[in-house]
Structure formats: C-alpha cells, structure tokens
Write a structure and sequence with these properties.
443 residues, alpha/beta, FAD/NAD(P)-binding domain, Enolase-like, domain 1, 3 domains, seven-stranded mixed sheet, five-stranded parallel sheet, 24 strands, binds flavin-adenine dinucleotide, binds nicotinamide-adenine-dinucleotide
Length: 443
Amino acid sequence: MVTEFDTIVIGAGPGGLAAAYALAQQQRVLVVENDLWGGTCPNRGCDPKKMLYSAVETRDQASHLQHDGLSGIPEINWPELMAFKNAYTNKVPAGTLAGLKAANITTVHGQPRFIGADQISVAATTYRAANFIIATGQTPVIPQIEGQQYLQTSTDFLALPKLPARIAFIGAGYVALELANIAASAGAEVHILQHNQRLLRDFPETDTRLLATALTAQGVTFHWDTELRAVTENATGYSLTTNTSLQLTVDAVFAASGRQAQLAGLNLAAAGVEATAKGVTVNDHLQTTNTRIYAVGDVVAKAQPKLTPVASLEGRYVAQVLLGKREALTYPLIPQVVYASPQIAQVGVKLVTAQQAPTQYEIREQDVTQWYTFNRIKEPTARVTTIFEQATHRLVGAIVYSSIAEEVINYLTILMTQHVTKAQLSQQITAYPTPASDLAYYL
Ligand SMILES: Cc1cc2nc3c(=O)[nH]c(=O)nc-3n(C[C@H](O)[C@H](O)[C@H](O)COP(=O)(O)OP(=O)(O)OC[C@H]3O[C@@H](n4cnc5c(N)ncnc54)[C@H](O)[C@@H]3O)c2cc1C
Ligand SMILES: NC(=O)c1ccc[n+]([C@@H]2O[C@H](COP(=O)([O-])OP(=O)(O)OC[C@H]3O[C@@H](n4cnc5c(N)ncnc54)[C@H](O)[C@@H]3O)[C@@H](O)[C@H]2O)c1
C-alpha cells in the first residue's frame, strides 16, 4: 500500500513540529516519530531539567538571604522533586499527539527508512511525498571505553528515582554543568572530569572561572586534564580509571561529552542525502543534497547553537520555503543561557571576537553586584559585560553572570535586535525597581 502526502516530517521534536504546524493549513502532512512525541526538549531536555532547577533556584535564593532575614536553607526532597517533574513530562507525548491530530496532521509511530528519493517505508506501509523534512535531533555520545555499558546519560539523570550519593560527569559543557549543579544542590557528592582545562568552551573564561569557583564552593570537584579510560563495577560502586593518578569510586557515571546527529536506520543513502559526523549537510535554504528533502534542528550540520528556539525557527522557515519563500535563511540573534547557580548567558558578538578587534569594538565590563537589583537578592557576584560597535556606538554583544541572567539577556537581545538607543529608552517607563528598569545603564 502506498500513501501520498505533500510533506513528510521525520521526527516530532520542536523542529519537526514547528514545520508540521506551519504547513498543516495548506498541505497534507504526515509526521513520523519513533520514540516520544514532543522530542528531546519537553521529554528529556530543557523542560524537565528546568523543572528540577526550580527547586535549586529557590534554595539558592534562600541561602543568599541567610542572616539577612532568613534562617535555614531548605533541603531538596529528590523523590518529590522528581514526581513534580514527572507530573509535567508524563503528559507531554499524549498532549503532543492530541495537538497534531487536532491540526489535521496525520501521524505514524515507527521506524522510517528511505527506500528511494521520494518515499519511505514504516513497517509494511510505503509513504510517498513531494517533500521531506528530516528533524531527528541528536543523541548523547557514549565514549567507546572499557565499561561503557555502565555510563548513563542526561536522559537517565532526568528520570532518577533516587539521587545517587556520589556522581561523576564526563565533560564540562552545558549538560554536565547544569546537571552537576542540580545534583550538588540536592546533596550529592559531584565530580566533573574534563579532558582539558576548559569548561563551557563557548563562554568567556572570566565568567566560567567564576562559575567553577561558585560550584566548587557548593561541593562540585573539578578534575581537569582528566580523561576517563575505563569504568569497572565493584562491591562499593563504579571505579573510574583515568589518564591520571585519580582514584574515584562513585554510584553513577554520566557521559556528558557532547551529542551527535540521530540518523540510524534512516538509510539516507537511498535518498541521496549526505551527512557527516557533524550532521546532515544543508545549503542556506536548509535543503539537503536531495533538493526535495530538507533538514532542521539539532540534526543539521551548522554553526548555530543547537537549541530549541533555533530548531523551531528552522522548522517554520522550511515550511515557508515549501509554501513559496525564496530568501535564504538568516538567523536572528541567538541568546544562550547555562542554567547553573548562578546562570551565565551571552548574545551577539563574542567577547573573544571583540578583544581581537579593539578598533572595531568597545568592551565595558561591569561588576554589578552592588547595584540595587542584585544587592536586594544578595547575589554573591553579578557581572554584565557589554560590547559596543565603535563606529555606531550600538550595543552588539553581552555576557551576563547572575542568577537572573536569563531575564537580563532576553531584554538585551530585544534592545540589540530593535537597535534601541539610550535616548529612546528614556522615553519608556518600566516598572521600578525591576531588572528592566536597569536597562538604560547597560547602554
Ligand atoms: C539535557 C538537555 C537540556 C537541554 N536544555 C536546553 C535548554 O535549556 N534550552 C534550549 O534551548 N535547548 C536545550 N536543549 C537542546 C534542545 O533540547 C534541542 O536543541 C531541541 O530539542 C532540538 O529540537 P529538534 O526538533 O531538532 O530535535 P529533538 O527535540 O531531539 O527531536 C527529534 C525527534 O526525532 C525523533 N527521531 C529520531 N530519530 C528518528 C527516526 N529515525 N524516525 C522518527 N523519529 C526519529 C526523536 O525521537 C525526537 O522525538 C537541551 C538538550 C538536552 C539533552
Ligand atoms: N541551557 C541550554 O541551552 C542547554 C542545556 C543542555 C544542552 N544544551 C544543548 O545540548 C548540546 C550538548 O550539550 P553537551 O553538554 O552534551 O555538549 P557540549 O558540547 O556543550 O559539551 C561537551 C563537553 O564534553 C567535552 N568532551 C568532548 N569530547 C570529549 C571526550 N572525548 N572525552 C571527554 N570529554 C569530552 C567537551 O570538552 C565539553 O566540555 C549543547 O551544545 C547545547 O546545544 C543546551
């Protein structure tokens, strides 16, 4: 049996769903998913992570106000916190599926396989379409070492019924930092093994070093220049062997050394779609080497950060292309936030770029700890670095180190996108005193 569609979307995460919804009014759309409807972000990524982080934030706020009106730091009750998270995530797949059906989008659960340039098979059925969108995301990299079967991933962490007493994370990127912060806040002994000396390599070193110090004070131990070689199970837990003399036995080890494109089983060769280790190769219209097939989101080989709003934007863009748009994709500013204690956020021109071109950029680094906004909540340290283009005096980049960095960076992103000047801001009233009422001081 062959079933015909205008567009078939493979993968029901933020990228694929954004494309499917944007096409559904004008096209016959099929979405194929082989695991959880909704994808990584709401099931095993951003959203559950930030549900757990809610308790961490509250605990941080309370601990900052000790002896300034509060006595006693609340303890995190892991099983209750996990139940709170599960109450949210358990509803995601069915809710996503119901939304697709309500939008008249056909859905199939199963493993799709390209069997030609314009068709796939799922179980015994063949589906043909004028266009396809590959939106299959990424999956954690598992280091190929002795004892790799003992390594768990972020997915396992976000579903832990009981918090292990001793935990090691391999890698010092987004996933390791955010999950280590949650685990340490909830009372675990936490170790981060990093093969070099760099944490959060995308972010400026001054801020990441400060974060390392803050996390160390909360009980996270960093083991720099340390490569995991083997994991063995014994009576007391998992023993880690590394390239150093480190002797470490823990109750759980999590691989957080990056993610890779999820392409297994798709048989891309049959459709003439090329991919490298970095993901599916696309042009500036997100078109693959088969011009009828597009790719969006984390699965794409691209320079932009792999984040939910980026995947959604790409999904909406490809839908517009399929409905007639001709312009190449240009990305807006993309704010990035690491949700630790505190958060680090950045947007626009990178600090290292500005430092290398002093005639082009002016850098203003401000310790804002004593500003009213940050002093009121007793932030131990808060910093805002702003980068201006010399020729226009426009704000073109920012880095924020604070427990409210997520909000400040969003405001700064809007100011930068809209090219708002200090004079224009002075005509605006924002509620006072709030993080928004500081904005003029950043310009
Ligand atoms: C722990 C963690 C925390 C994160 N936190 C944040 C955050 O705070 N903010 C942020 O912006 N981003 C965050 N991210 C990244 C974010 O989750 C991704 O950028 C986003 O989910 C990408 O969307 P996507 O649609 O490209 O892929 P995905 O969400 O991964 O969706 C892909 C879908 O395709 C399905 N699929 C895969 N292979 C096949 C196949 N062969 N056939 C059919 N279906 C298939 C998958 O099951 C999945 O449902 C986080 C990621 C992780 C792992
Ligand atoms: N807050 C957020 O927006 C958020 C949170 C989590 C994840 N994410 C997304 O998910 C992506 C993946 O996160 P991640 O932390 O897994 O990857 P990452 O690329 O951020 O970090 C990988 C870490 O592993 C280390 N590493 C690399 N190769 C290694 C090896 N062979 N052995 C040991 N360590 C090694 C790297 O040096 C780095 O520290 C992020 O880049 C981001 O796009 C975003």
